[in-house]
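Researcher: I'm comparing several assemblies side by side, and this is the next one on my list. It has 655 residues spread over two chains. Same procedure as the others: predict the full complex and return the structure.
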Amino acid sequence: MKKFLTSAAAIAVAATLAPATFAAEYTIGVSNTVQGNGWREEMICAMRAQALVEEDVTNLIVAHRNTDSAGQLEDLNNLIEAGVDAIVLNPSNPDALNSALEMAMAKGIVVVAVDAGVSAEGAYILSNNQEEYAYLGAKWLFEQVGGKGDIVYMRGIAGVSADTDRDNGFKRALAEYPGIKVVHEVFTGWQQDQGKQQMFDFLATGIPFDGVWTSGIDNVIVDAFVESGAPLVPIVGADNAGFVQYLTEVDGLTGAAVTNPGSVGGAGIALAVDVLNGKAPGSKTVLVDPVLWENASEEGRATIMAAQNPNLDPEWPVSVTVPGWTDYTMEQIIACKGPGDS
Amino acid sequence: MSGIIRKNAWVAGLLALLVVLLVATRMIQPGFGVSGLESIARAALPFVFATTGMAVVVIVGGIDLSVASMMAVCAVTAAVLMERMAGVPAILIVLALGLAMGVINGGLIVATRVPDIVVTLAMLFVWEGVALLILESPGGSTADWLQKSIRGSFLIPGLPNALVIATVCIAVVWLPIRRARLGIAIYATGSDERAAFRSGVAVGRTRIAAYGICGLFSAFGGLSLAALTGIGEPVPGPYLLASVAAVVLGGVVLGGGRGGLLGPIIAVFILRIVRTILTLLAVDPNVTTIIEGTIMVGVVMLGTAATMRGART
């Protein structure tokens, strides 16, 4: 009887120590091949922060270094050896990693590619919706100029899938506003100096225009207006720290930042946990919709002010969370600590 | 005689370290077995060839900073050719290309008398540009049988195909040379160029040959990259510094004349398995490289101290 009582007490103690719901114990592996880039660092920190708040994740193994596809294969194979339950990766190439990814999936490991796709059958792909990114910003801009006017269209790099997707979104918005005309279309190559020079050149022609849509080369365009003394027109950019700051500081600038969050990494972890828990989405490809922050309304300005944080790395995109996906706080992503990190 | 013992002692020491690390891996991850060995051997493949090529030019008294770029040229060439023709002729063309690039490196060094480090640094950029000219962005494809050949085990489980292929390729190229006049000339030139010249060694031709061998091994390295990924990538991977590290850790003296190829090859596996262990332990990725570097310096210092004590007694 005494024995029974002690074991009952032990069970009771164990029951109070154990979490209320029986949480699974997942180990998730992360693989990334670009180190030292603000967008990618935000992605990694979002992954750590999300893994920390997911109660089913007990361990996160991060393979994060500058390497080629062969090096990423090595990292992926090491993660498989480590016995992870899921792998979340930013692939260096859509086709080069299939041997390791197929082996992982054959072993029942959930594979989620974030930011870019992989061609391996059965892998989940989660990325920012680039078509929506362009549509959202373009639509706001066209509304802002009164549905009628001339627009300068500053694209990224010809032939890159993100640029092609954004072009589709831009054209979709254009079709809805017959009064809008594109007076000038250029490729900035996503280069700050090149984009600025192109804006200088166009301002010098004296051709009038009513608004500028940029594919993320944004704060230098504002600089070009200010430096050449031209009157500012509405400008659409991305949520880069420099541009978002301009939206709050530069006199007479009306503009909007469309989010392209590196924190999709955190959404990738959330998706992997969902799949492990049997809550897989209907489609293998999941697109994260961007949001738009504008400074034309009181409400918009409040959103921008709330998003800014002096502790945030200036190299990071300002949108540190993905609504509907990530659950961590801004302090947690800035701390950049995963489960098991002291 | 004592030199031979010392060299073998270093190799034996490295081998012991490798076994210790393998046992440690097994203790950390009890599931580590045949598939783990295979994936390490596969990951090591491009490093093994880069290191072997580097070791040969270091033994002759030089250094080749263009190893990774030559590998990139060979990888993209293989991926482009195999889209259009059968695998075997494509491989032969790539090997000839590697040899030619190495001979150009060596020829320039001997003809211009500009230091090796300067010429091959310049060629690093030249070959990088050539790779981008051949293939602007990652692409192409590789023969299926080539991709399959480096997977799985040979005859018995636990003897990875990748390891067998590396051993055969290196043995076929290096053993006949090592035993022939050229092998002796390479060591003689590296150990004292003037003495070698006065003993009748064609020093210039020997150095060109050594760089040619390095180019040939780089071609094997490029082919293994193409076989691993199934595509060609024009941007060079992290193989230059990794190969120098493995050469030094492998007991080849920077400056030339001393050391073999076995030590550096074992060193490659040591460095790969250290990365596996650090991944299994979920060590912070920013700390990983610090640990890798510290282990290297530690082993080389310890080895040098042991060798010096051995030389004194």
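Model: For your comparison table: Chain B has one domain: 2-24+40-306.
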